[in-house]
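agent: user wants the full assembly modeled, not chains individually. Plan: 1) parse entity lines 2) check alphabet per entity 3) run joint structure prediction 4) return tokens. Steps 1-2 passed, two entities, 356 residues total. Proceeding.
--- entities ---
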Amino acid sequence: MEIHILRLSHRAERDKRVTTHLGLVGRAFGAEKILIGGQRDPHLAESLMKIVERWGGDFSAEFVKSWRSTLKEYKENGWVIAHLTMYGMPVRETAPKVAKKAGPDGKVLIVVGGEKVPFEVYESSDFNVAVTSQPHSEISALAVFLDRLQNGLEFDKDFPDAKIAIKPCQQGKDILTP
Amino acid sequence: MEIHILRLSHRAERDKRVTTHLGLVGRAFGAEKILIGGQRDPHLAESLMKIVERWGGDFSAEFVKSWRSTLKEYKENGWVIAHLTMYGMPVRETAPKVAKKAGPDGKVLIVVGGEKVPFEVYESSDFNVAVTSQPHSEISALAVFLDRLQNGLEFDKDFPDAKIAIKPCQQGKDILTP
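--- prediction returned ---
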């Protein structure tokens, strides 16, 4: 499965940390790319790319001119669109449906909203997915959706060309610097 | 299962949003309480309690004088301590072990670090759990751990006495205000 993320309506100051964390979650949980709409902030994309350089893998982060055009383009290219919203259908039942529609070699675009998501996003999406119908965080919603979409297989992902890696241990820290 | 969260080393300005989101994730994913160590910020606890009042359930948020004493007290009272750290053992294998050790009526304290977690936290914990060994976010780590610890049963949780609730729908928004 190939997974990209489209983050809507980034606000340069207020959302810096949240959008960065969305990128890190995407990378750590098996997505290949985050596309960011809203206010451009080259530092943000750069700081994500620095983490990729250090921790390996081929994740990328870029700002897009218009999320609307990006969404349209992905739809036209046959990607399955899954929009994360607390108003959508329960993730437990819906994530397997998204995976089934995409198929093993399929492509999924995950749309993560900002403030006030326009109704056309709900309409353009193949699935509106609720990771609980309670308020929490885009960051947690994205992680749990990615975990359930891939059924835990994201934990087997390799991050080649890393300058630093961690070897799991019961207690303490075991850092590998190849 | 009864689940509390202990957040270490909160910094009033810098961590406001992250600690708030940790509280919201805890509430939405079936925990009963968040205890916060570090700089006191009564507004933060208040704003979480306002969400509880509006969205229902009996979650609570409070600052503690010393996380060290809190951790000690929970240990003495027989709670299973699970510390989330990227240096720990993989969540996929470890979450079921935590659940097994706690048992169905058991009690789990989840420790979420801040900057530089002292080694005694690693030592005092029954489990050091890594939600991937890659950098991402405390918020996503907590959500995925809670989901795997409870095996999705957190999605069946009720939030009694809510002033607002959302009914899942395929498209758009269906808000209930009883």
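agent: reporting back. The mean pLDDT of chain A is 96. The domain at 2-176 of chain A is CATH 3.40.1280.10 (Alpha/beta knot).
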